[in-house]
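Z., the sequence and structure:
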Amino acid sequence: MIYNIHSRFQVIALLSLLCASAAAQDSTVLKLNLVQAVETGLQNRVEVKNQQLTVQIAENEVAKVRAKNLPQVTASYDNRINTQLQRQFATFPTGPGEIKFGTYSFNVLAFNATQNIFNPANHEDKKINAVLTQLERENLNKIKIDIKLSISQAYYDALLKKEKVRASQFNFAQADAYFKRGHEQLKAGAILDADLAKLELDQLNAQNALDTDTQGYQLSLANLVNQLGLPPGTRLDLTEVAAPDATEKLPDSSTDVSRRIELQLERTRLLANELNLRKQKAGYLPTVSVYGNLTKQQLNNVNYDPFRWALWNQYNYFGFKVDVPIFDGFSKERNRQEYIFRTQQNRNNLIKLQSDLAYELQSAWVELRTAATSLGYAERNYTLARKVMAVDQTRFNEGGITAAELKNTQYSVENAQTNYLNALFNYFVAKLKWLKAKGEW
């Protein structure tokens, strides 16, 4: 389809060849097909980079929870000078008196170790954080899917606007040729001044259309550069062929949305809330741990000298500890009720998502079929319009029709050309929506 258009464009040589030559010689021009554009965008977009960091943060949370089950070892050193000892009063057999507890110099070096034996909250936290990490990975996939769609739409928009510029260049070249030929015909007395004015008006309109399409193309390229996460001003050369795959068959209708990332996300949220509900129940179970201590201390009532090793003495101990929750003010029960409500919300969301996504899939299928049908009509109309134009061009050269009649035919070609390019863009966008709705991205 587009190959035939390109053969027509060869007659306007100058502008297209100069642009192509400049692009080939300029090493700063980035040449991209659609697949390369999507890969470039996924590498550059800040949203993807930030979500990848969010995944790493979630993975780090998993490691932090696992670390709670490792031995917790601490060391402390307490160096104290008692400038005034605490006094206590007591009654002795000889009568009341004053007692002072402590020494002038006090040094303590202690090592403490604790090891969890059974901690149900930590056990559930490991599962919860693993699920939350999976949730962030799925969020990353969703972000990538959305970016793929936006980049693909921006790419096709720029690609079709590029074709419109080429078509406008061809139309301007024809209008300019007719205007120049009209000058010769006016000198020969074959047309009137009014006829030449109409040809000049056609030339000006063609120039305006070319300028408008060129500006639209530049804006679409700027949008694509932004979608790709590239620096503003980056020059692009789109290498994708603006034509549908002639061997591709339209898909059959389907209601299978099981691969949609939105459903996966909601199922993962449901699982996370179910695990949080289990965690609240596990909070009623006891926690078991063992602990130990090794301490060396120096008590010196004469002067401050921590290096008098003979004054240091040592003691140690170890123990077994069980913590049993008795009453927490119904805090766990209220948390349990909250997660019961949250899981019900997740199940309701899944039902609604199933319905909404099935409708989206059906709508995308209808839109794709309609776009394909419209593209077929537009292609046939454009082919027919070009055939009529070729015949009328020959008749005009032989004097069989007037310039006004040829101009009407030219308008029909331009209109069919615009309709074809618009239909082609609509088909590409409809196909992208179908792939997204199907969950094939």
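The CA atoms of residues 105 and 303 lie 7 Å apart. Confidence is low (pLDDT under 50) at residues 1-26.

Let me know what you think.
H.
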